[in-house]
Structures are given as C-alpha cells and as structure tokens.
Specification:
Chain A: Belongs to the binding-protein-dependent transport system permease family. HisMQ subfamily. The structure holds two protein chains of two kinds. Chain A is mainly α. Chain A has eleven helices and no strands. In chain A, about 40% of the residues are buried. Chain B is an all-alpha fold. Helices cover about 80% and strands about 0% of the residues of chain B. Chain B has helices at about 5-10, 20-50, 55-70, 75-95, 105-130, 135-140, 145-175, 190-200, 205-230. In chain B, helix 2 crosses helix 5, helix 3 crosses helix 5 and helix 6 packs antiparallel against helix 7. Classes of the chains: A mainly alpha, B mainly alpha. The interface of A and B includes residues 67 and 186 of A.
Chain lengths: ~240, ~240
C-alpha cells in the first residue's frame, strides 16, 4: 500500500465530511420530530390515525432507501402541478431531496423506537403525576417524554449511526459527500483499495465519536443506575 | 406523455414492461439469496471465531464486525466492483486481454452483500448460540457424542432455532441492500426501473412500481419467515 497516496486520498475526501454531517444532522433532526408525531399517532387510540401511521411505517421500512430517494428526486418531476408549484425550487435540488428522503425514512424507524420508549413509562409514574394535579400536557412534557427519551436513547443512537451510513446514498444523486468523492477518486485513479481504506476510516471515526457522545448522554441521564461514589477516606500518610 | 400510468409498467402487452420487470425481480431475488447464503456461511465461521477462537482470531472477528457495521454498504460495493477491476485488469493484460476487466456485476454484488451481511450473521449466530442451554450441550457429550456429532445433532439445530428472528431481520436488510447493486449496472428491479424511467420519461410510475415490487417481496418473505419461526419453535414452551 502506498502511504503517500493515502495522504492524497484523505486530502481529497475530508472536504466531504461537512456535507455528510449536514445531511445526517438535518435529516435526523427533522426525522425525530416526525418520528415523535408518528409515535403519538400510533398511540393515540384513534383508529384511522393509528392505521395511517402503521401504513406509513410499513411502507417506509419495507422499501429500499435508494428507491425512496429516486422516487423523490426523479419521480416527482413527472407531476406537472408540482413542477410549477412553489415547492419546486426546493424539490429540484438533490440536497433537499436527499434530506427529505432520509428524514422520511428515519422517521419510520425512529417512531417505533420512540413508541417503545413511551410505552415503557410505568403507569404508576403517570398516575402519580396526575394525582399531583398536572394537566395531561404537563404530564407528557415533564414525566412521560423525559423518561421515554432516556429509555429510547441507546436504540436511537443505533439509528443515528445507520443514518450516517445512509447519507452515502446521497452520492447517487450527485451529492459530493464522502462516498461521492470516494467514487470520483476511484474512477480517476483506479486505486479502489486505498480509497476504500481512507473513506472507511473517516466513517468509522465519525461513528465512533457519535457512539461516545450517546454513551455520555446515557451516562448523564441515568444517575440512578450508577453505583454510589466511594466515600473519600483520608489516610494518615496523606494528611501531612 | 407525462400522465401517470402504472399499468404500462406491469403490462405484459407487446409495449409493456411486464416481462422486463419480472426478469429484474428474479434477478433481485437471486442476488439477495446468493448474498444471504454466502453471508450466513461467513457468519457461521465468524461466530465460531468469536466463541472459541484464540485471542488473535477473536480480535480479527471483532474487527471485522465492527468495521463492516460501521461503514456504508455502498463503499463496500464500490470496493468489490472497482477493486476487482484493479486486480483483474493487469492480470488480463498479462494474458493479452484488452481494456477494462472486472468481476461480473452479479458476482461482485453478491460478494459485497455477503461480506456486509456476514457481519450481522456473525452477531446473530453468536447471540443464538449463547441462548442454547448449556445443559443440553453437556447432555449430548455425556451420552458419548463426538464434538462433530453434537454440533450436527444438537448445537446447530438449537442455534438455528433461536437465530430465526435475527435471520429474518438480516434477510429484510439484504433484500433492501440489493437495490444498491444497481450502481454497478446489474439489471435488478431498481436498475430496470431506471432504464424504464429513462426511456418513457415516467420516472414516478417506474420507481413507484419498484417500491411496490420490493414491498411485495418483503411482505411475502416476512410472512414466510414468520411461519418458519413458528415451525421451528413449535417444541418450545412459551413462558
């Protein structure tokens, strides 16, 4: 393996990192909001809403993300009313199409994670909050949601990692993020292995950092699961 | 021209795309099944390495699963498709072949899927093995079975039983991942939809048709796998 080429390759691929992170963070943020809405619809107890959310989750989870991206980026142009609408300046850009597809996709997976979290909140805690005189909304905001977030965090961390990997598909609709730059570099130099090593390492580093952040958040949110700190014992030798 | 016609995509009339779409569906299933089975073989060895390998072997298996689960599948497909040509083209030139050589797209794609899904298979098999009751394995040895016989008669069937739900998940993943192989030009569902979209200027109809086909395959196989799970756990007490 040619080490000077590895250096060249990393200089060529690193400029793609901001775009990858942008695609990931915007779509995760949008997807999370949508996921919460979907989870609430599924738990709403209102049949039509429940079925709509179920259908949405089923469709988005059982079709490939790449098909969803193509459907939004290439497919929507078939509809003339859309092409002459106000939305077209957004929908003709590959950047926003990729983000919309990623967000819609992650919302389907995320809503199941959030639903699990919401359902894991013990009934007694909700009852206690109601007994204190909290309104339904206050109970949700102060008790149910924080507990659900804590419960759902590890699984949602996995989903975020999957989203980092999923941003690679944006390269297929001309976005020059890490994988897009890697494919371009491979076709220029025919050195697939070296480029793969560099691009793969960048993704591994990003994912490693995200796992650490999630771990840190989990640690912060679960003080009750930590063992008590050891009492400080001042030994005689230290006390000079 | 631009009106929405899903019927032409599935039509078997002379100007319909039905035959092409069904051939593409068969290709998707073929490449996904090949990748899934090859991945299961890799996963079996991976799980074996993680359970009973030496420290070095275990570290290698750990590295494999961590790396392959942490990088995008598309990169792996690029590596196999373009990487194979980087190796094969000079060899071909040695034998007097002209120009650009690479692995057939089917083979490169199936191998890429196998390598990626192998990492997931490893974890599923390892997890399933750990659920098998130690007493059952001990009992097999106590009745005088050799390790190979105990593996074939007791360990493998019991591990498979607990692995079925995990394997079903991997299958759904592999099926969706197979759409990525369209970037190498293999004519599976998504590539065929791209071709159709390009020549009829009806991208929405074709990609919607592709989505419907994936939906059908995944729900049909999901139903079959649920049946398989019920079949393989019929002797299990639910508690």
């Amino acid at each position: 393996m040619d080490f000077s080429f590895l250096l060249v390759a990393s200089q060529r691929l690193l400029p793609g990192v901001p775009l990858t992170l942008q695609l990931m963070s915007i779509s995760v943020a949008l997807g999370m909001v949508l996921a919460l809405i979907l989870a609430l619809l599924r738990l709403s107890g209102i049949r039509p809403l429940e079925w709509a959310a179920r259908a949405y989750i089923f469709v988005f989870r059982s079709t490939p993300l790449l098909v969803q991206i193509f459907l939004i980026y290439y497919g929507l142009s078939q509809c003339p009313t859309l092409r002459y609408s106000m939305l077209w300046p957004i929908l003709r850009q590959p950047y926003w199409c990729a983000i919309i597809a990623l967000a819609l996709n992650t919302a389907a997976y995320g809503s199941e994670i959030i639903r699990g979290g919401l359902q894991s909140v013990p009934e007694g805690q909700i009852e206690a909050a109601r007994a204190c005189g909290m309104s339904r909304f206050t109970v949700f905001r102060r008790i149910v949601l924080p507990l659900a977030i804590r419960q759902a965090l590890p699984a949602y961390g996995n989903e975020i990692i999957l989203m980092v990997k999923a941003t690679a598909l944006a390269s297929v609709i001309t976005m020059m993020e890490i994988t897009g730059l890697a494919a371009k570099l491979i076709s220029e130099t025919y050195r697939a292995v070296e480029v793969f090593v560099v691009a793969g390492s960048i993704y591994l580093i990003i994912n490693y950092v995200i796992t650490r952040v999630i771990h840190f958040l989990e640690h912060r949110l679960t003080p009750h699961l930590r063992s008590a700190p050891r009492p400080i014992v001042i030994e005689r030798e230290d006390a000079v | 021209m631009n009106d929405f016609r899903l019927t032409t995509v599935f039509s078997f009339a002379p100007d319909g795309w039905g035959p092409a779409m069904s051939a593409a569906t068969a290709m998707t299933i073929a490449v996904a099944v090949t990748g899934f089975i090859a991945g299961a073989i890799i996963g079996a060895f991976g799980a074996w390495a993680k359970i009973s390998g030496s420290t070095v072997v275990r570290a290698l298996a750990d590295g494999y699963t961590t790396v392959l689960r942490g990088i995008p599948d598309l990169l792996v497909i690029y590596l196999f498709y373009f990487g194979s040509s980087a190796i094969l083209t000079p060899i071909g030139r040695l034998f007097g072949a002209q120009g650009f050589l690479s692995l057939p797209a089917f083979f490169a794609g199936a191998m890429a899927i196998a390598i990626v899904s192998g990492a997931y298979h490893t974890e599923v098999f390892r997890g399933a093995y750990q659920v098998v009751a130690r007493g059952e394995i001990e009992a097999a040895y106590a009745t005088g079975m050799s390790p190979a016989l105990a593996f074939r008669r007791i360990i493998a069937p019991l591990t498979l039983r607990f692995a079925v739900p995990g394997l079903a998940n991997i299958w759904q993943l592999v099926l969706k991942e197979s759409s990525l192989i369209s970037v190498t030009g293999l004519v599976e569902i998504l590539r065929q939809a791209q071709i159709g979209a390009g020549s009829t200027k009806q991208p929405f109809s074709f990609f919607l048709a592709a989505a419907i086909l994936y939906l059908l395959i995944s729900s049909a196989s999901g139903w079959a796998l649920q049946y398989a799970e019920r079949h393989f756990t019929r002797g299990l007490r639910r508690g």
